[in-house]
Amino acid sequence: MLNKANTESIRQIKDLVNKFETHKKQYKKSTYDEANTRVDFIDPFFETIGWDVANRQGFAEQYREVIREDKIIIVGKHKAPDYSFRIGGIKKFFVEAKKPSVDLKHEISPAYQVRRYAYTAKLPLSILTDFEEFAVYDTRIKPTPKDSASVARIFYCNYQEYLKNLDFIVDTFSKEAILKGSFDKYVESTKKKRGTSEVDKEFLKLIDTWREKLARNIALRNKDLTLYELNFSVQKIIDRIIFLRIAEDRQIDNYGTLQILLNGENTYRRLTQIFLQSDDKYNSGLFDFKTDTITLNLTIDDKILKQIIKSVYYPDSPYEFSVLDVEILGNIYEQFLGKTIRLTPSHMVKVEEKPEVKKAGGVYYTPKYIVDYIVRNTVNKVIKRKSPKQIEKIKILDPACGSGSFLLGAYQHLIDYHLDWYTKEENRKRALRQEKIVQFGKDSFNLTIAEKQRILTNNIFGVDIDRQAVAVSKLSLLLKLLEGETHESTGRLFSYTQLRLLPDLSNNIKCGNSLIGTDYFEGKITATIDEDEIRKINPFNWKKEFPEIFRQGGFDVVIGNPPYVNAKILVELFERERKYLNDSKNYSTLYQKWDLYICFIEKGLKILKQKGLISMIIPYPFINQMYAKMLRRHIIDNYNLVEIADLSNEKIFKNAIVTNCIFVVSKRKKLRNVIISSIENGKIKKITTKSYPELILDKETFVWDLEGNKRALVNKHNFKTLGDFCFISIGMVLNADEKKAKGKFKKEELISSEKSNIHIKRYVEAKDIDRYGIGRIRWLEWNTSRVPRLIRRPTFPELYEKPKIMITKIGDLQSTFDKDKLYCDQTIRIAILWKNLKGIKNKSINNSVKRFYSESREILEKNSELMDYKYLLGIINSKIGNYLLNQIRGKGNIDINPQYLKKIPIPTIVFSNPKEKKIHDDLVAMVDRMLKLQKKYHSARFEQDKKLFKTQIDLLDQKIDSLVYKLYNLIPEEIKIVENSIKKSPIL
Predict the structure, then answer these.
(1) Alpha-helix residue ranges (DSSP H) falling in 145-226
(2) Vertex 874 angle, CA 869 and 877, to 5°
(3) Phi (first) and psi of residue 779, to 5 degrees
(4) pTM greater than 0.85 (yes/no)
(5) Domain end (from 710, 738, 773)
(6) Rounded to whole angstroms, what are the CA distances from 460 to 327, 395, 414, 471?
(7) Residue 219 and residue 172 share a domain
């Protein structure tokens, strides 16, 4: 219930309800319009629940809580939502107002309208009200014109029911509810509701369809086009249509300009005339037909273009482009750029993922809060307390800009800073006189479009190897420039200046390979260099492309999210580039199986001006893995590491396995304490500091310790390791899984046969393994006469026929015991006690066994011959087993490689000591019980039986953990460290 503090709110709502009730007949007349409804009822209603609707606090325009739009109707189309409710300038929900004579409960149009606005803006909830009625819609559900008014409506009441429902309204939509997170919690609780599909996913599907249809039609009608020209043409046409459609809805262009093309023939000819007119108006590279000599001469069928144009207009389109944020569009485009058009030999079109994207598992767009964090820690520090004149010289770069998310974030920050500066009382009159800002209300100001152009061209720079990405990045920045502009404001620009509406960004955003210079082709005979190779390598000369910037010493800020391309993918797809990068005269910090992002960091440091700042979001293993040790040392020895943000507990990129961190480095050798921060749920959770000696955990590898003394538990006791007791290897690699390697199964050799030399073996993969259980057994067949050539790494089948522990290859430790001679592939690691490998025929393994027996007498005498597999299995599957693995392999690393398993400390049992033997035997008995319980759980048919077994499993799991803690002699404080760091479920 509402507390006493809300008594005044209740009284005010009662007064509004009584006022409406008393004069209801008057308010229900068609002559009582929407404007009066807003002033008389809707404004005071939301002020009652805490919102400063009239901006009495006098906040600057970009920070005011509620944006109210004057209603403008153009060709039956509304300009924008009536109210946008915001916190810190971030939109939380819309309110669409109507007059009381409108039947909100049943009329389709008002519901469709508010749903289109909020769906396009990617807002989860929004409100439709005329005060008489109040409806809340789940605006994650894609709207269609035929939806009834009740579709996606999750709450409805009339004015007489306000007091009864005030708890829900206040707890969800009041300003206090937003600030305390109640709104977000409610949204999260309804997230998986059937039918929800966010705008970026749906719009991506739409433009993917455009691409495929355009590509097929253009390829069919324009046979002389090369593959490169086809990709270019399709991208340009899509970009231009989207830009013009957004310009229409934002009132910069006449609404319906493209819609006219739905009537008549020769659609593409008429569309190109609109493009040419746009070139005159906007003067942007988007419509530059001096460099684009292809698209004006294309032939495209009317039907294809009309389908595309029809799909972006009411009523077919669920999108309201006036509220489509550039950041949302950037997310859409980032995914869109992950695919490319390919032509078959018969000139047929195929749209498919780019090879590097497919190998990397997809495209991942950087969330806005990460961009904001990096911009605050770099751009904000560089411009702090500087005047606009001083900021002119500051150059900000993203060397792998993609669709432009970091450049958009930096540009927005600069716009906000300049607006704050110009609207300060001491600067305001001069800024108005010099036309830096324009006033459109008592306390409302905006930067003029000319000033926004000046900031963009002076300060923002980007490079990307992908020409399509460069085009999209330019488009995104141009749309950001036009945010908040109208036909009236852009008309002023044409009247009073020689500027055109959009600047040419060809000197700011460039296409090229940030990592490879033009010296790549030195010494090569030009005649042998294939055009495709030149286009693929796309070398870039930094000093030639940005001469003025490098005369001033380089860039002031370098930011971004560089590509993560591991060593394996580099070898497979980028062998030529890899050789160049590996040359120490080009990059000096690459080590062992390095990742491409290492090169981007080194390059960023090189092109950074003295005292400049670089910050990027990168994989967390940079902190602790061997491949990054040279760069870690390079940073510590030559620069100032300012801050490290630990993101390992935050899922930054949905569906990606990688965990992340953010670094901030200053190009100055002035060592200070390093700030260690943690970002969780989009917010900075904690900040600590470390001195450089405290930060560096290992002087040889320069591993950075972000966790303090937690890692000391690994070496607390002088235990033996799992490698002391077991031979550890990966399973076999099959020909069906990898190409080019010799001596593996071929797909055709996995076909059943009745011949005597064909053997069938039971076989498992990682996805078949649970903790203490096996969910599925597969069948494997091979020709025994060819065994030596069919199994690789390890090369002998006897290995699989021994008792063994099987461990999955990634993530948390999940292992089970096998005594049934199961074979397994490379997604599983196997551990076999040395005693079980005696007398094996394989020479290398036999030599390892002999070496073990000669070097490990003490272990064997006291332990190895008597140790049970289930003792080791209990430790591996325990919380401390997982904890120790994470400390050994390094936080953020998900691989479970044999070398990590070998290092896991194992308490040694002296079997002649009755107490120690009892602990061993107790753990073996518990694990034996667990193996049986898990089997029963997975085979149970009734849910009640599953719950019963689950309860027993949970209790037994706790007992195993407690016993293992005793084995490691952990004190309560250390147990707490382990418990807090491991999130483990006994059934996975």
Answers:
(1) 166-173, 175-180, 182-189, 199-221
(2) 120
(3) -125, 135
(4) no
(5) 710
(6) 16, 6, 10, 15
(7) no
